[in-house]
């Protein structure tokens, strides 16, 4: 088996699993969830899985579990999710979001980056080995259907199926190339706490001429939010940063090697103002944030309506560094609002996910780096953790696996946005990397057995 053979196979089979994209598996709208899960079970069975089944015992959308036997005693667990974000606003799409469209070397579709393209790539790798002598290692898949609504049942499923999920290492969803087009091997995820804020100052909207004495809910909420964060991004909540774990020398060394390209990062999203930090690499890895996701109050339609809003609400999240706990952070924010005099501002806890980071000296990290350099040359970056979150902590906590993120998208893929896409070459290259990784990990297992 050679890299050339892998490439030829992937190029010939890039579209094999395009039907997966055509399912409108939108968890937020409860669309085509059972149909997508059934399709996945059928695909795993068609690839000669030892078992392929749906787990429904812990509630929520079904988890699809599959298991394949390989030539080595080593076992890799893959995590993916089959649900996607809604496609709106539809008017901004240049093609049908649920019809995979190849144009100018890119595949456009909702979920092709986050996260269906990742699973398609992994299925292609499985398909290759199953038709060319068998898998080098044992492989398991955990594919959930509620990631885009916060994975509310993930901890229960991992705990209940600990034995079935037993594995040596875990490859998480998602990954790919950064703004410098360097392939990333990411060793962890930030955590998140997502919450709502609301305040009511009157029983009904009031004529704006009475602003001389009447309180304004919109101003009240804006002032409450401003009391929690400084203009330069520092969170002004007492104790907010106290639990962040100090970085070890290895992690600091990897951060120092990160080549953050501020200009490209800004251009990718069209930033209109300068960055709010002088050290974005560090902040992306070990910085904690507070973000207003949206604010709503009063009249927001066309024309003029001069009122004092009776109520205001906002959605916010905090991205958490390893060591921070989402429920504790939420409690600290609640107490800070009281201390700041905003006892009337109500908070509601939506979701929380704990952060984690794999030991960067783990042999599996080093194997991924070696294999990546054989495929991508020296354009490889090992990253302590992504600035985004995900439900990986229960796997890390219960299974004790090193967990890494590698994948097939690039910095301009636009997950969650209209015209979400990946580049065909990235998909093919990332799939070859996965084939090489499975092969190399299998050889390590054979060497250990001797």
Query: Mind summarizing the main beta sheet?
Result: 6 strands, mixed
Taking pLDDT < 50 over at least 5 consecutive residues as the criterion, the unreliable ranges are none
CATH topology name of the largest domain, in short, is: Aminopeptidase
Strand content: 15-25%
What structural category do the secondary elements indicate? Answer: alpha+beta
Keywords: Hydrolase, Metal-binding, Plasmid, Protease
Domain Peptidase M20 dimerisation: 188-337
GO molecular function, one term: peptidase activity
Pfam family, one: M20_dimer
What are the defining features of this structure?
450 residues, Aminopeptidase, single chain, globular, 6-stranded mixed beta sheet, 4-stranded antiparallel beta sheet, 31% helix, Alpha-Beta Plaits, 12 helices, alpha+beta
Q: Could you characterize the architecture of this molecule?
A:
The longest helix has 26 residues, at 424-449. The chain has twelve helices and 19 strands. β4 and β5 form a beta hairpin. The strands form six sheets. It has a six-stranded mixed beta sheet with strand order 1-2-6-3-7-18, covered by helices on one side. Strands 12-14-10-15 form a four-stranded antiparallel beta sheet, with helices on one face. It has two domains: 3-189 and 356-449, 3-Layer(aba) Sandwich (Aminopeptidase), CATH 3.40.630.10; 191-249 and 279-353, Alpha-Beta Plaits, CATH 3.30.70. The protein has 450 residues and is of the alpha+beta class. It has helices at residues 3-12, 33-46, 116-130, 154-160, 217-226, 249-257, 262-269, 280-286, 326-339, 363-376, 393-399, 424-449, and strands at residues 51-55, 63-68, 75-81, 101-103, 106-108, 138-144, 169-172, 183-186, 188-189, 191-200, 206-207, 291-297, 307-308, 311-320, 346-353, 356-357, 380-383, 403-405, 421-423. It starts with a helix and ends with a helix. The mean pLDDT is 95. α4 (154-160) runs parallel beside α11 and α10 crosses α12. InterPro entries: Cyt/Met_Dipeptidase, Peptidase_M20, Peptidase_M20_dimer. One of its GO terms (biological process) is proteolysis. GO terms for molecular function: metal ion binding; peptidase activity; succinyl-diaminopimelate desuccinylase activity. Residues 188-337 form the Peptidase M20 dimerisation domain. One of its GO terms (cellular component) is cytosol.
